[in-house]
C-alpha cells in the first residue's frame, strides 16, 4: 500500500477519533451524539450565542451540564431550518 492511499484513511480515522472523544450519551436522543460547547453550537446552527441559551431555556435543544459546570449542547438536536431558529424570538 502506498503512502497516498494511507493518508486519506488516517485523516478519516483522526476525524472519527475526534468525534468519538466529544461524543456523549444524550438521554433525549437515546443515542451517542456529538456534544458541543454553546459557541460551537451557535456556529454550527448559524445562530447567535443568545439563541443557543434561549433554546436551552425553552428546551428546544438537548443539553446537559458537565462535571465542571459548563454547558454541553447536543449537535443532533440543533435546528437546521431557519424557520425553527426564529422560534427563539417568541421566548421571553
Ligand atoms: Zn440529543
Q: Looking at the structure, what is the overall shape?
A: elongated
- Give, in order, the helices and strands: HEEHHEEH
What structural class should be given to the helix and strand makeup? alpha+beta
Number of helices: 4
Q: Please list the strands of the largest sheet in the order they lie side by side.
A: 1-2-4-3
Give the strand content: 15-25%
What does the main sheet amount to? 4 strands, antiparallel
Helix content: 40-55%
Through-space gap between termini: 60 Å
Bound compounds, each kind once, are: zinc ion
What's the domain count?
1
Whole-number mean pLDDT: 85
Q: Please tally the β strands and state the result.
A: 4
Estimated radius of gyration: 16 Å
Instruction: List the uncertain runs.
Output: none
Report on the structure:
The chain is of the alpha+beta class and 92 residues long. It has one domain. 43% of the residues lie in helices and 18% in strands. The chain is built from four helices and four strands, in the order αββααββα. It has helices spanning 3-22, 38-44, 49-57, 82-85, and strands spanning 23-26, 31-36, 63-65, 71-74. Strands 1-2-4-3 form a four-stranded antiparallel beta sheet. The longest helix is centred in the first third of the chain and has 20 residues, at 3-22. The protein binds zinc ion. Zinc ion is lined by residues 26, 28-29, 33, 62, 74, 76-77.
